[in-house]
Amino acid sequence: MTRPLCNCPVPEVISPALALKPVGEQAGFVLDQCQVCKLAWTSPEPNEKQLDQAYGESYYSSVETKFNPVIEWWTRFSARRRARKLVHQHGTNSKKLKVLDIGCGRGVLLNGFRELGHEVLGIERAGSGFDTLADIESISLQQLIDDKQRFDLIVLWHVLEHLPRPQQSLEQVHQLLNDNGSLFVEVPNYGGLQSRMFAANWFHLDVPRHLFHFTPRSLALMAAASGFSTVRKSSFSLDQNLYGFVQSALNSLPLLPHNHLYSLLQSRFSVRTLCLLLLYSPLVVALSVFAMAELLISLLTNSGGVLSVQLRKRNND
After folding, report:
1. For residue 100, is pLDDT > 50?
2. Cα separation of 228 and 172, whole Å?
3. Which range (16-25, 106-115, 180-189, 204-213) has the least confidence?
């Protein structure tokens, strides 16, 4: 696993890290962070057995749906809106684009691009089952390079933090991107307000699946080292910020299971699930007031829960 950009010899141990869901032997993970480049990483590096457990059936859920019908509808609606936004930011709305979505999951965002008339390809981890869906393959970036594939728009949406060699992956993406193409990256903001507030209870920490934890400085340095220049950047995400705050606050309360609400939202509707969601609703409503306040503060201070960047090849090299 790649170490810090500056090869800092003495990283600082930050805090014990929690997983999104209990995964096997969970004790012992910590976060190390370089105090020069500010890149943090999960330590020790999870082994293959731990990763196989982390990416099991409970993580991927169904190849068709992941959440209950209401949340599923919102997820698909948001993905269609995001696809339109990214195409608009790329700047060629009228042109048919060749789009690559790396770590595309069930292809929800991929479907958004397809509905806009673009040529799409998604790639996913072998064993996920998603390669049975249209336009999704379990193929490496190097294979695409060897096949001389090139793309106008490439997406790494909450994926870069999962990769064991993120800088190498960005360098490979650089080879796959057309000279005037756009790379869109979004990752959790480890340097944001929520991360500092909730520490190991932060919803978006997601150890051991998240191998790296990016700050604005470390993401900018890694992008530049991989041959990219930054066109646009933001730390604002309405849904990621609001839900991230609520779930992180719930994680901080004693007696409540870690990420229990998130698990309920993934569950199919049943009498038990509905009753539990109803019990949660007053607490969620109350926490949403504080979440809105945090959203406003993070917007004003540019310290939101995510880091979103649009990158292009530097000098079209």
Report:
1. yes
2. 12
3. 16-25
* Token output for 124: 């996913």
Cα of 152 vs its chain's centroid, Å:
21
Q: How far is Cα 209 from Cα 70, in angstroms, rounded to an integer? A: 26
Distance CA 74, CA 208 (A): 27
pTM of the model: 0.90
Whole-number Å distance between alpha carbons of 166 and 159: 9
- Residue 260's Cβ-count burial label (10 Å; 0-12, 13-18, 19+) is middle
Strand, helix or coil for residue 85: helix
* Token duo for residue 140: 């490496």
| CA dist., res. 171 & res. 93, Å (int) | 27
What's the confidence (pLDDT) of residue 12?
66
Q: Which helix (DSSP H) or strand (DSSP E) does residue 202 occupy?
A: none
Facing residues of 189 across strands?
Answer: 214
Say if residues 154 and 183 touch (Cβ distance below 8 Å).
Answer: yes
The conformation of residue 61, written as its DSSP 8-state character, comes to -
Give which of 208, 291, 210 is closest to 249, Cα–Cα. 291
Choice among 45-59, 176-190, 198-212, 240-254 with the minimum mean pLDDT:
45-59
Q: Is residue 265 pLDDT above 60, yes or no? A: yes
Position 196 scores a pLDDT of 93
Is the pLDDT assigned to residue 61 strictly greater than 70? no
Q: Count of residues for the chain? A: 317
Cα separation, 121 vs 137, whole angstroms: 8
Residues 6+ apart with CB under 8 A from 118: 87, 96, 97, 98, 99, 153
Contact of 208 with 48, CB cutoff 8 Å: no
Mapped onto helix, strand or coil, the DSSP state of residue 195 is helix
Concatenated DSSP letters for 244-270?
A: HHHHHHHHTSTTSPTTHHHHHHHSPP-
